[in-house]
Model the fold of this input.
Amino acid sequence: MVDFDSDALVFFGATGDLAYKKIFPALQSMVKRGRLNVPVIGVAKAGWNVDQLRARAYESVLKHGGVDRPAFDTLSRLLRYVDGDYRDPATFEAIRGQLTTAKRPAFYLAIPPLLFETVVEQLVKSGATGSGRVILEKPFGRDLATAKQLNRILQSAFPESQIFRIDHYLGKRPVNNVVVFRFANAFMEPFWNRHYIDSVQITMAEDFGVQGRGAFYDQVGTVRDVVQNHLFQILSNLAMEPPVRADSETIRDEKVKVLKAMPSLDPGHIVRGQFRGYRQENGVAPDSSVETFAALRLAVDSWRWKGVPFYIRAGKHLPVTCTEVVGRFRKPPSVIKEHALTRNQLRFRISPEMDIALGMTVMAPGDVLKGETVEMVASHHASDEMDAYERVLGEAMAGDATLFARQDYVEEAWRVVDPVLKAATPIYEYDKGTWGPSEIEPKVCPVGGWHDPVVAGQEKAHAAL
Done:
């Protein structure tokens, strides 16, 4: 792979919601940290000029994190704007004109996936690609077939080494801290395997709904929106083998091996739910069968994890907003009465804060050989943490592919979930503020039950360890 710093950033969708909420604040932070000093060319069809784009950028950073005057002034000077239809060759001629002497531009497609093919084809026809790279937002297709088609389109214009597929979840520090914690601590390796771990569960809970994005969400659903991308990335970090080198390709090789070891998901090992009232959301079909909740059981048939079930649970309108991993240990043989024992567990809290906790049994007060469960918690909170979008955009422009999904990874992830996307699995209603439909209990439930995250200050349902 050839690493180089991009000498211009062209981002399509400059007037859109993603740009307003995430991209402009990230760009200001990149300038502030000295990570961005090249032209930034916004492209959209809005009838705007560059002054209107600068005003939009100012409103964006003011609302989402605050204005850093010196950094924003520099960003404002870097901003350029091209207004035009993505199907019009004149738009791409104007982009070439704005690139001037840039030879290694990064083209960031912050636009709906249905426009990817059009933009890439126009870039090729215009000759604007140069020795550049392309950065694009998920979803990378809707299933395995469309993912393969998208990859063919991208690779018609860019080598795979210069295709950066953004999953902003990989820009979150706690997600990558899982890898560091596993491979930088000698005590982890002896027990993080099938001999000691009974099950692993990953919960991604949100206490809000579709937030006015019903038309979008009704085309996607929970499995496509967060399971086969965000949560599979977490699973890969948990289950991968130690990489022999720290370069991006070696690390990504190990992640792909995890997915290759996963059999395709059995439709009998998923429960899909829909919160009551979803069909009344704007943009949602009155007879929608799209899931707003999914619980599934997966296997990783590698030497390390053969026989250990991996459970994933994600959904809208659950009791809390939290992403958490729990690895449950097997019960030990003990002189303590079996019914008094709870399973030890290792817990990774990924959001809203970053914690690592070890749940263990100690002697209860006043009683000999009677146990109670406690947690030993390690917590770390950085004061100036880099935002996920700042991190992934900066890494893409620097040519470091570690945090990005490779073609084979994307296709393996879709292969795993493809059977349930095509199967007519039932949809069960659940009440807002609960942990999903009751049907998960007999079908997709770890031994000892799900661990329900508890977050201070939020409504919560708490299950004992």
Notes: The chain is about 35% helix and 20% strand.
